[in-house]
Amino acid sequence: MFKKITLLLIFILIVLFFYFVIHYYLSEENIKKINLSRSNVKVNLINKSSNIPFLDNDTNNVIEFNSGFNSENKIKKRSFWNLIQNK
Fold first, then answer.
1. Which residue from 6, 8, 59, 87 has the least number of CB within 10 angstroms?
2. How many domains does the chain have?
3. Buried b (16+ CB within 10 A) or exposed e, 30-54
């Protein structure tokens, strides 16, 4: 009996929770707050994006090519068969 009452109470609490959440979410007051917040975000974005400073390009001739690069091939030719024949 006690178990059935607790289950019924839990079920009622869950249903009430969802009812109040949905009721608040769909209320006119909440919809007005959401629309006001969205319009404020748009206005703030436009205001802040118009105040962004323009930075001049100061990266001309920054990268220098290393002309001291040695292009000689120092790779030794290796052959597995020559290594076996030497032994």
1. 87
2. 1
3. eeeeeeeeeeeeeeeeeeeeeeeee
> Considering the domain boundaries, does residue 59 fall inside one?
no
Task: Compute the distance between CA of residue 28 and CA of residue 16 in angstroms, rounded to an integer.
Answer: 20
pLDDT in tens, 12-64: 999 999 999 999 999 999 999 999 999 898 888 888 888 888 888 877 777 77
SS (H, E, C) 57-74: CCCCCCCCCCCCCCCCCC
Q: Would the pTM of this model clear 0.85, i.e. be above it?
A: no
End-to-end CA distance of the chain: 93
- The answer to the question of residue 35 being in a domain is yes
